[in-house]
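Sequence only, no structure available. Ideas?
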Amino acid sequence: MKSLKHVTSIIKFRVSEILIFILLIGTAAYAGTEKGPITDRQGWVINRELLPHSKESNKKVELFWTKPKGDGTYPAILFIHGHQEQVRDGGESYVKRGRLGMMAARGYVAAAVSQPDYGLSDGPPDFCGPFTQDAVLVAIDFLRNKNFVNPNKVVLFGYSRGAIVASMVATKDQNFAAVILGAGAYDLFK
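Reply:
I predicted one. Tokens follow.
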């Protein structure tokens, strides 16, 4: 039979492990809320903007973006994420997967917007509704007004719920060079 002192030391060790785990989880959760530039896994500097929503200026639209190295005018692509159940990091998911840096390496200004109630974007989660569509239009306007973006060569890319939003935004703004819709649900026949 183990001594009481031995059992107590095991319990203290386990409690220490749990506290360290909680500290690491809390740090990871906080890391996703940092403002300003971050670096993706390929070393690309990704800018994070919190833009005022066009309908409610006290609400923010989170946008991540990067550009190719060097001077020039580039085409741009805006990614719109789908629904996220567990980790609702919004557009940051494209940063974590290296998509923005990959597109910048190919000569695109690459951006990802967080839909309302995802990431640091404020607002009601209106399931692809007007508030979400207007948030995407704010991001598009931001990109088109950058001097390094060719405003006539902006591509909208939406996946899943993001594809639904992208299709609806494309009906409000017909100046996109392309609209790419993946795995969305829409009725194109009405």
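Confidence is low (pLDDT under 50) at residues 18-32.
Hope that gets you unstuck.
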